[in-house]
Design brief:
Elements lengths: L1 E4 L4 H10 L5 E3 L17 H16 L3 E10 L6 E2 L12 H11 L7 E12 L2 E13 L15 E3 L6 H4 L1 H7 L1 H14 L1
Parallel strand pairs: 1-2, 1-3
Antiparallel strand pairs: 3-4, 3-5, 5-6, 6-7
The structure holds inosine 5'-triphosphate and sodium ion (NA).
C-alpha cells in the first residue's frame, strides 16, 4: 500500500517512515513533485492537519494524510499548542522556541506537558482523524541530540531522559506521532 504524506518536515517524514516500515509505503511531497509552502491558518491541530491534506488533494489529486503536532504545557494554559512551530515568531528556529518556552517557565514548579499529534487522512472522498498523545514534563535545560523540535527539553512519563537522549528507536515506539500513526496503519490495513 502507498500513501502520500503531506509534510515539509524531514524529521516527521523519517519518523513516520520508520514507524510504518514493512507495512505502508510513504510517498513524500518531493516524490510527487510538490514544493509548496502550505499556510496553516487553523485554530486547532485538527484544522491545520486538514488544511495541509486538503491542499495536496485539491492541487495534486492524491489521496493523502497530513499531521499537525503541538506541545501543550499545563502551566502555560496549553501553550504553545497549535502555535508550537512559531512560538518565538514567524521564521524562528527550534532553538528560539525552546529558549522562549524555558524563559516562560522560569521559577514555575508545575512542569507537566504533553505532545499531541492529529493526523488527517483524505481517502476516497472521506476525511478521517487519528490522534496520539504522550504525557511528560519539561526540564530546565536542553539535554541530548537526537530527534528535533522540543525533544531536548521533554521527558516522557516513566523515563528520566529526554526524547533527544532516548533516541529514535525508543521515541518511535512510544511517541505521540507513533500512537497516531499506528492507528492510521491499522485503519489502512483493515
Ligand atoms: P509540516 O510541514 O508537517 O506542517 P512543521 O514542522 O511545520 O511541518 P507543525 O506545523 O506540526 O510542523 O509544527 C510542529 C512544531 O512542533 C514544530 O516547531 C516542531 O519542531 C515541533 N514538533 C513537532 N513534532 C515534534 C516532536 O516529535 N518532538 C519535538 N518537537 C516536535
Ligand atoms: Na507546519
Amino acid at each position: 500500500r502507498k500513501i502520500v504524506f503531506a509534510t515539509n518536515n524531514r524529521h516527521k517524514l523519517d519518523e513516520i517512515r520508520k514507524i510504518t516500515e514493512g507495512k505502508i509505503e510513504i510517498l513524500s511531497l518531493d516524490d510527487i513533485g510538490c514544493h509548496d509552502e502550505i499556510e496553516e491558518t487553523g485554530n486547532t491541530l485538527e484544522e491545520n492537519a486538514l488544511i495541509k491534506a486538503r491542499f495536496i488533494k485539491n492541487k495534486y489529486g492524491y489521496d493523502c494524510f497530513a499531521e499537525d503536532t503541538g506541545l501543550e504545557v499545563d502551566a502555560l494554559g496549553n501553550a504553545p499548542g497549535v502555535y508550537s512551530a512559531r512560538y518565538a515568531g514567524k521564521a524562528c528556529s527550534d532553538e528560539d522556541n525552546i529558549n522562549k518556552l524555558l524563559d516562560n517557565l522560569t521559577d514555575i514548579e508545575n512542569r507537566k506537558a504533553r505532545f499531541r499529534t492529529v493526523i488527517a487522512l483524505l481517502m476516497n472522498g472521506k476525511e478521517y482523524f487519528f490522534e496520539g498523545e504522550i504525557k511528560g514534563h519539561i526540564i530546565n535545560e536542553k539535554r541530548g541530540s537526537a530527534g528535533f523540535g522540543y525533544d531536548p527539553i521533554f521527558v516522557p512519563e516513566g523515563y528520566d531522559q529526554t526524547f533527544a537522549e532516548l533516541g529514535e528507536e525508543i521515541k518511535n515506539r512510544i511517541s505521540h506521532r507513533s500512537i497516531a500513526t499506528q492507528k492510521l496503519v491499522n485503519f489502512l490495513l483493515t
